[in-house]
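Thread: quick sanity check before group meeting

JM: Hey all, I'm pulling together slides for Thursday and realized we never actually wrote out the predicted structure for the chain we discussed last week. Dropping the sequence here so it's in one place. If anyone has concerns about the input, flag it before I start.
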Amino acid sequence: EAIVAHPAFEGGLRLTLSPLEQQLRDDDFYTYDEDGTHFSQDVTPMILAAHCKEYEIVQILLLKGACIEKPHNYFCKCSECAEKQKQDSFSRSQLRMNTYKGLASAAYLSLSSEDPVLTALELSNELAQLANIETEFKNDYRKLSMKCKDIVVGILDLCRNTEEVEAILNGDVDQSLPSEHHWPCLRPNWPLSRKSRRYREMIYRLNPFMKFVAHAVSFSLFLGLLVLSASDRFAGVKNLPNETITDHPLQIFRIKTTQLSWTEMLIMEWVLGMTWTECKEAWDDGPREYIMHLWNVLDFGMLSVFVVSFTARFMAFMRASHAQLYVDLHVTNADLVNGSLPEDVAYFTYARNKWLPSDPQLNSEGLYSIAVVLSFSRIACSAAKYNPAFTTVEESFKTLFWSIFGLSGVISVVLKYDHKLIENIGYVIYGVYNVTMVVVLLNMLIAMINHSYQEIEEDADVEWKFARAKLRLSCFDEGSTLPPPFMQGQAQIDSESDEINEEIKQDISSLRYELLEENHRPLKNLLN
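JM (edit): ok, ran it. Output follows.
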């Protein structure tokens, strides 16, 4: 207090500038003893006080007009930033690091900001982005980002009741300002009649639930279609590999094998709908945020394999259609067997055992088996295998089950004919299945289940509340597309969602406090 009361500090300029900046202005106000200083010359008194968590000194400096200037954007092209980057880029990054350490200090956040909770969360998000830009200080920025979240938790932890939580999260709200300039009130206001209010409350509570049910029903129907498709495919390979079956004498055999069944057409429509949903989610969240969730990557990869599989199937059908068109125009015999066909047309009359390994239909079936792992062998026919494994759903289940105990050999995926792609896909998928079951599930599952059970048993109520909150929040996203076949009602649901959008946002804050009463860890995860 005695030092800053000196007339030299009037106006607060010397408290804001670092010693290095003072020297650049030909101001020799700061001097050093023979041993130098323990601190970098770019550190201001306020930054140093924030680093040391000196609340009283921070308060004194703030009263004198000192503050920590937020660094410019990392990609700023102003003359000052360009000059610092040109002279010493590492020193510039170090200066930014020291500044952000001061900004992320609990002492500075709590004393300089009118809304430390909001400021800390915004700063945490900015620091997380800088961690991916300034690689030299990547770990430091990540620690600072987590530190800001811990500050928020610490502030809310000091609250003794719900009213104090509301006061902190709502802040000093000026009701005359538009709603976008302040936090929404935590308690929903329903300025409607009692009957209308009950209707709105019912929609408000049921809308996320119905959204969850729609996705669950959609995926269940998709699985059901895959089961029906499996039955159709197994029925289609009952004939021997050297047999051809046609509906009439002049029909090309491949026309019959490449046509899509009604279940496959429905699966294709489902895949297109789910692909559109994933693309829209990636567009809304951004590619970086989208791929951070590995389930999104898995879903998109699975859908991509389905799309490529159906594309190959369509190519095979188009080539067979061209061959059929040639037969219809040029073959007059009553039977194709007695007709003379060009080799490129005759190929589509051959039985399965004469197909080329690069045939689009074989590639399509191989890719389809990758997308539907447990059905990967449905493309094989009975007489093409050394044993009946994977020729039916029942045989597939038996083979996979007994392979866990080492009672099914690798011969289960060997084919007699030169269809190497299909055979190699069988090797890979069957090998991945055995490694996963034997090495991971059987040897690690017991320990993992025991560990998880102990954790959940000790904190069962909090775990349930956190899981419930995550499920609710997953259905609150705006603008997401409903899955097939519920897309027709999207416009009506969007209209109702817009009307109650503010009420949904207000209830999210209440969920925070519900979790906070029990444990800090779920709240930290939720803030993440």
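AS: nice. Residues 7-170 form one domain. The radius of gyration is 34 Å.
JM: adding both to the slides.
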